[in-house]
Amino acid sequence: MKKLPLLTPELVITLQQLDGIGNKTILNKIGDKITSPIQSLSELSSLWKTLKGKKFESITDYEIIEANKIAKRIIRKAEDEGVGIITYYDSEYPEILRNCTDEQGKLDPPLVLYYRGNIKVLEMPGIAIIGTREPTPNGIKAGEYFAGEFARKGFNIVSGLAIGCDTTGHRGALDAKGVTTAFLANGLDWESIYPKENLELAQDIVSKGGLLLSEYPIGQSCGRYGLVARDRLQAGLSKATIVVQTGVKGGTLHAVNATLASDKPLFAVEYRNPVDTHHEKVQGNIMLIRDKGAYALKSTTLVDAISIIEGKNTPHPKVSQKTLFD
User: Fold this and answer.
1) Read out DSSP for 252-271?
2) For residues 33 and 27, what is the distance between their CA atoms, to the nearest angstrom?
3) Neighbour-count burial for 144-175, b at 16+ CB within 10 Å, e otherwise
4) Tens of pLDDT along 100-133?
5) What are the strands, taking DSSP E only, across the chain?
6) pLDDT digit string (tens) for 144-187?
7) Closest CA to 162 of 207, 131, 206, 208
């Protein structure tokens, strides 16, 4: 018999609609007070009366009822769109995300996950493949190659659907007949997909057995804050992160910092071709390998990389070999 969650998705989303009640308050100050499953609005109202503090005492039963009406509309829209919902309190919630951290290393798991596609892919180990929106030709080649190789080894390729390196990760996995997950910073209705250039890719991911994930409800457009917040989730869902190409500044470093803060392996593709090594969008790779403890990833060190990710051994000594990207 399936165990009841401490809070139903409807009640979790209801709490999100209350003024001044954020995800961390729900997780740390409300969830911690629940000792047995709460399944109805009346049970939630009864719990609310036991919570201490001005923030809780200022919210009335009427406001909880109105918040619940909004939550029901959100759920209905998701159902109409074919989008599923799981929350932190559901047994289907991916365990690895319970330990998701922000860039400062503070626990910051998503409270609600909206999903479209095959939720079962979350049972596979994830590898985040990320990088600049403006990769070099060898960067495109590298992203597709490593995504395909890791997909063939049974990894779920995780990225953010952005143009450039994210696209190479998703496409590489699909071309290898593997699976891939896109973590988005917008609602999962087709109208809200961002960027619009990758709408067809998003649809391909779903039709070919992959998954779209988001913290945001149907109709939510993409914003700058959402893109930054989303980066922690790519790292959080993955056992390791691979940087295909990045400059020394840029959005890629949000996921890099979250990876390092959570003490997960970080890899940066190493290039030898002067066209790449002198390119602005590769200087971040060089910096990460030199200064941040990132493992240099080459086509010749793929086996070592998998061993590191699986915690089996350390990399072999460096040898001078011709790589795929020379």
Assistant:
1) HHHHHHHHHHTT--EEEE--
2) 10
3) bbbbbbbbeeebbbbbbbbebbbbbbbbbbbe
4) 999 999 999 999 999 999 999 999 999 999 999 9
5) 84-87, 112-117, 126-130, 156-159, 180-184, 211-214, 240-243, 266-269, 295-297
6) 999 999 999 999 999 999 999 999 999 999 999 999 999 999 99
7) 131
